[in-house]
Design brief:
It comes from Mariniflexile litorale. 86% of the residues lie in helices and 0% in strands. The chain is mainly α and 114 residues long. Helix 2 (35-48) crosses helix 4 and helix 4 runs antiparallel to helix 6. The longest helix has 27 residues, at 5-31. The chain is globular, with a radius of gyration of 23 Å.
Length: 114
């Protein structure tokens, strides 16, 4: 058995990596956006749009879906939650560049309707 210590060490390293990977995967699952999270984010966007959502319901829905997808592609849930706890100015600096294309398209479609 004295010459086989390297096998034991190798098994410990492999097992340790497996445990680390499992923990990492578990943590990354907690970071993933769910369908429920997407719906909440989209619904919040629509309710925050107030009059625009009433006047342009379909366009606002499309805009909110687009923005939600962009935000979820760029940030994890925990990163997004941290951003929402910042001042409105800092939120704007962080989030607006992410969904600017959605906003521009939304504004263009509204102009074309009027």
């Amino acid at each position: 058995m004295s010459g086989k210590h390297w096998i034991i060490a190798l098994m410990i390293l492999i097992s340790g990596y497996g445990i680390y990977s499992g923990i990492k995967d578990k943590n990354s699952k907690n970071e993933r956006w769910t369908a429920e999270s997407s719906k909440i984010l989209t619904d919040k966007c629509i309710s925050d749009s107030k009059e625009m959502a009433e006047n342009y319901a379909e366009l606002t829905y499309e805009y909110c879906k687009c923005s939600t997808k962009k935000i979820q592609a760029e940030f994890t849930q925990s990163e997004y939650i941290k951003i929402t706890k910042m001042s409105i100015e800092n939120q704007t600096k962080k989030l607006l560049p992410v969904f600017q294309s959605c906003l521009t398209e939304y504004q263009t479609k509204i102009k074309n309707r009027n």
